[in-house]
């Protein structure tokens, strides 16, 4: 009777790359340095691949802050690499809810706040999709205020994304815009801006405006609108000004609209013009309730 042929099975030991990934998953910094000592070219081999989950991606997904900081010092280029899903380390961390982790890495390299991933999303776009901690959102905006101007490949700011996905984040964004007197529209000077005048007119008609109320700069709603009319971009608000000058045309039965809501509308002129109806309505509703 013929004997069955034996089959030789060769077992290859894990590569250094595999071991580094394992160290990243287990948050083992000592093993990381041991592996570097054994194979100093390991970073170059990983870095040669265009779209890859680097050890920094693994640490980011798990929220291993100190391991990730070591990686940032050892191989800074990993922080800007995208994986096969179009995500950088910061995108991946925010997708997994590790906002404090991201703030720690940004202290090492603040320019990472501008890294764009899939569909042109920056870290702020991912942050406002899920984060509900108002303090963390505000801290992020205070530390990196210019990121409010970042747009996706569809020309959407964080306001667009928050209006669709996260009402809590939208409230924080609007309150932050109010407190800092920041204006998204100011970064659009090279574009022809036309405010949705009809939307503002309907809002003013449907909500009773305290025409004499003043803000922290002693400006009334009329002052704000007049100031916008004389700004650097084209906003037609003549009808809005006329309505404010003739308060008897407002519905006496409707409740008052907060003065800063008008400020927000003027600041976000571009956003309201290009937003889908649902997102625009959400922004206006939340602005009124803030």
From TrEMBL:
Gene: LOC111297619
One Pfam family here: Ank_2
InterPro entries named among the record's database cross-references: Ankyrin_rpt, Ankyrin_rpt-contain_sf
Protein name: Ankyrin repeat-containing protein BDA1-like
Keywords from the UniProt entry: ANK repeat
Domain of life: Eukaryota
ANK repeats: 85-118
């Amino acid at each position: 009777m013929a004997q069955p042929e034996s089959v030789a099975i060769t077992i290859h030991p894990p590569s250094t790359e595999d071991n580094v990934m394992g160290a990243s998953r287990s948050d083992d910094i000592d093993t990381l340095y041991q592996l570097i000592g054994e194979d100093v070219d390991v970073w170059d081999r990983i870095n040669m691949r265009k779209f890859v989950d680097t050890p920094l991606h693994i640490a980011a997904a798990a929220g291993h802050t100190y391991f990730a900081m070591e990686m940032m010092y050892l191989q800074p280029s990993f922080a800007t690499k995208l994986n096969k899903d179009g995500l950088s380390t910061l995108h991946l961390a925010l997708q997994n809810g590790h906002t404090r982790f991201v703030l720690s890495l940004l202290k090492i390299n603040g320019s990472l706040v501008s890294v764009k991933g899939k569909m042109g999303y920056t870290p702020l776009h991912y942050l406002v999709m899920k984060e509900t901690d108002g303090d963390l959102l505000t801290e992020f905006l205070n530390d990196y205020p210019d990121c409010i101007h970042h747009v996706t490949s569809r020309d959407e700011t964080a306001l667009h994304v928050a209006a669709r996905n996260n009402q809590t984040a939208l409230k924080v964004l609007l309150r932050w815009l109010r407190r800092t007197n920041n204006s998204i529209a100011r970064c659009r000077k090279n574009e022809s801006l036309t405010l949705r005048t009809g939307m503002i007119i309907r809002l003013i008609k449907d909500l009773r405006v305290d025409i004499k109320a003043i803000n922290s700069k002693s400006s009334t709603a009329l002052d704000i609108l007049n100031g916008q009319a004389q700004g650097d971009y084209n906003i037609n608000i003549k009808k809005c000004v006329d309505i404010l000058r003739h308060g008897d045309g407002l519905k006496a039965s409707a409740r008052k609209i907060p003065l800063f809501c008008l400020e927000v509308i003027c600041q976000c002129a571009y956003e309201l013009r290009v937003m889908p109806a649902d997102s625009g309505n959400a922004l206006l509703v939340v602005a009124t309730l803030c």
